[in-house]
Amino acid sequence: MVARRRGAAKLVVVALIYFGVNVGGPYLRYYQFRDAMQQQVRFAERKSDAEIITSLRLKADSLELPAQAQRLRIRRTPSRITVWGEYVETIDFPFVTRDITFRPVVERAF
Questions:
Q1: DSSP for 15-47, written as a single string
Q2: Three-class SS of residue 100?
Q3: Whole-prediction pTM value?
Q4: Dihedral sign for Cα atoms in the order 69, 92, 21, 105
Q5: Cα dist. 49→21, 32, 55, 65, 70 in Å?
């Protein structure tokens, strides 16, 4: 009976690792990308829109995000800046594949 419990516990650990990597990876990359967006917006008063987009495209590339993540938009007003984008990541589960849409948005008032 003890051997069955150990086998079941190992199976649970393997399943958690598998799903953690498959599901957690895209969410971790999303939060890292959003953090880079926040960093760029924090210093937006000193940077042009082109500099911000170039920097964020490099970050998206380094995180190996889908090409859609490179399509970023910036809206500036005299008192506010907003940066946003949208991309889809595919997660493979056993027997099922899911597409998850990420929509990072960062905004800052001056």
A1: HHHHHHHHHHHHHHHHHHHHHHHHHHHHTGGGS
A2: strand
A3: 0.83
A4: positive
A5: 34, 20, 10, 21, 14
Cβ pair 84, 103 in contact under 8 A = yes
Strand (E) or helix (H) holding 56: helix 49-62
Contacts of 1 (CB under 8 A, 6+ apart): none
CA neighbor of 34 nearest in space, from 86, 77, 75, 79:
86
- Could you read off the pLDDT tens digit of each residue along the chain, which spans 110 residues? 555 667 778 878 887 777 777 788 999 999 999 999 999 999 999 999 999 999 999 999 999 999 999 999 999 999 999 999 999 999 887 788 999 999 999 999 98
What's CA 68's distance to the chain center, in Å?
A: 12
Classified as helix, coil or strand, 106 is: strand
